[in-house]
From TrEMBL:
PROSITE patterns: HD_GYP (PS51832)
SMART domains: HDc
Organism the protein comes from: Aquibacillus salsiterrae
Name this protein carries in UniProt: HD-GYP domain-containing protein
SUPFAM superfamilies, per database record: HD-domain/PDEase-like
InterPro entries per UniProt: HD/PDEase_dom, HD_GYP_dom, HDIG_dom
Record-linked CDD domains: HDc (cd00077)
Spans through the membrane: none
Amino acid sequence: MRLVATKTIHEGTELAKAIYSDTGRVLIQKDMKLTNKMIQRLQQLGITYVYIKDALTDDIIIKPPIPDELRLEAVQIVKNSFADLQTNGYQKHAYIFSRVSEKMSKIVSHIIDEIKNQEEVLSILSDVIISDDYIFSHSINVTVYALALATELGLPQQKLEHIGLGSMLHDVGKVSIPEGILQKKERLTDYEYEIIKTHTVEGFNMLRKSGTIPLLVAHCAYQHHERLDGSGYPRGIVGQDIHFYGKLLAVADVFDAVTSNRVYRDALLPHEGLEILYSGSGRLFDQDLVHAFRKTIAVYPNGITVGLSDGRSGIVVKQNKHLLERPVVRIVKEFGEEIIPYDVDLSNLLNVTITSCHSTLENSLK
């Protein structure tokens, strides 16, 4: 299967992975031949990338970082919990957190187990589950990324559990933000942006007063927008004053934000998201955490099309876990000419580099 941009697929393309709603309902079945109407609907739903069937890559298997069933359950728990918090007054928040914290903790434990047993690095968390609110899927994506980073660092189980729960609840304060601002497609005014920024304090206060959520978990909500140079919010604190969890969440949060589709821009590819982190490494984000995070992510995910420095182009078929910038590539063209496909392992060809990465059907293999 291949990973391609939805805006470049054409009628008759076969879907290689099913698309679900966040309630678990199948919106488009695997193996379905897409019609123009379906493709238009996918674009309207904000689906940036899809996996499609392709004769050259039938043997490429994309294993999700966590099973779709687990992700669906996690999204639903977050969605229901946030809805309860939004519709009930502050006096009931402690009751709601006591009811959902056990469920969330179990989900976090399952995600930790999946990540620890994952042989491959994390591939892109593509839009296979459609939620009616970005916050829900974002909360789960950040949880997966943060736990993958924390696992790479070798943190003990209790810290993994705290980070997982804190990641799942890091945006809980947004239940207090007016929907009109959260869902606004146009650029926010300065006033609206100031309101958005209050979600960190609101979330912190909700969690610290819950009676069932550890204070360190509350700090994930409080500090995930702080930056090393003091340019973050809500307090503008600097490096040594930011809790380790806040620094870790900042990396996972920004990476998912830029590699997810938003109402005002398309998602970036993983190598582009990592470049954003590296551009702020040591200034905005902890350098060691960014470096460790890079070891957990497929820079060029399986199924993506790449161009090489020697004029060849092909499709990534396998990762080299300890040399992620140099995957195994199935060469399908040489200097723009189609050839009989063959695989090359870039870890054995250090004089050849990836010079471009594409997700379009029209231009990717030219």
